[in-house]
Amino acid sequence: MREFLTQSLGVTIALFVFIAMFNLGMDLTLRQIIEPLRNRRLFLLSMLANVILIPVLAVAFAGAMPLEEATKIGFLLYVCCAGSEAGPKLVQIAGGNAAFAVALLGALLPVTVFVVPLALFLALPDVNIEQSKLMFNLLLVVVLPMVIGLSIKALRDTAATRVSAVVHRISVLLLGLAFAQIIYVNHEKFAALQSIALFAGLLFFVLAFALGYLIGGPGKQNRKTLAIMSFIRGGSVSMLIAGQAFPHAPQVLVIATVMTSLSVVLAVLVTVWLRRSPSLITS
User: What is the pLDDT of residue 132?
Assistant: First the structure.
């Protein structure tokens, strides 16, 4: 049984990501993605923070901590995967600029798909990573379902809204299954996890939130948006890449999973805090 679950783990993660991206596409329109990008300054600063500044910051303090090699790779892989499909919903609940969050996510996902495999290839020349295969899998599992979802939304808006609610429930179930399967297969590695790795994760989330908040500018809605979108990363995509690129180093997937789980818990707490404490964030 354990052997079957180990061998099928990659399929479970890939299926979850495919369904989640399909669901995301059916919740968006091209106009929602394009319209907020007219604020070029905010958009460029947001891309700069998420694609360059935050990963560079993470590399700096990860290098200063005594992390095991596989732990460091998993941590940096999570950080480099910018754009979480949960980000716009959290921004909406927190009272941020949900339209811009959608646009930013639409811009960050393609960057993650194309840049992260190249970054892995350049940063880890001694690790055998089939870059072309990884890129193809990301296009197939991340980009294609999102394009299909966007197309359905554009052609059959009412039907997409109805189907999206059902697909969302399926994606939540698959996420729970993926987490349970990862923990079951790698429970010894979770038990042996370095406490310094958890500290590094918490420190990253604090710094990324602060950086996004500062870059958001004078408007409180944009500050909320950038703070949330900067610290919650593309956990599902990082888990997919970890399983695809590092099949013989399961600790990489463990760390990506831990970071993803931790980000979900912290994101919910932060979102509630931002929603209930508007007076702490003045415009």
Answer: 80
Tokens of 23: 């669901």
pLDDT (0 to 100) of residue 283: 45
Q: Selecting from 1.20.1530.20, 3.30.1330.10, 1.10.3720.10, 1.10.600.10, what CATH number does the domain 2-272 have?
A: 1.20.1530.20
Six-digit token string for 235: 């956990």
End-to-end CA distance of the chain: 56
CA distance 168 to 36: 25
Task: Note whether 118 and 132 are within 8 A (CB).
Answer: no
Percent of the chain's residues with pLDDT above 70: 98
pLDDT tens digits, residue range 44-54?
A: 999 999 999 99
Mean pLDDT of 75-92: 89
Helix, strand or coil for residue 80?
A: helix
Three-state DSSP class for 193? coil
53: its two tokens? 């500044």
**C-alpha to C-alpha distances, 157 to 20, 76, 88, 96, nearest whole angstrom:** 18, 38, 19, 25
Closest to 85 measured CA to CA, from 7, 25, 39, 126:
25
Rounded to 5°, the CA angle 133-124-116 comes to 55
Give me 70's structure tokens: 């596989």
- Of 118-122, 148-152, 201-205, the range with the lowest mean pLDDT is 118-122
Q: Where are the alpha helices (DSSP H) in 139-219?
A: 144-155, 157-185, 187-191, 195-215
Taking the CA atoms of 161, 268, 214 and 224 in sequence, report the sign of the dihedral they define.
positive
Maximal CA-CA distance, the chain = 56
Domain ranges of the chain: 2-272
Of 125-139, 151-165, 224-238, 240-254, give the lowest mean pLDDT range: 125-139
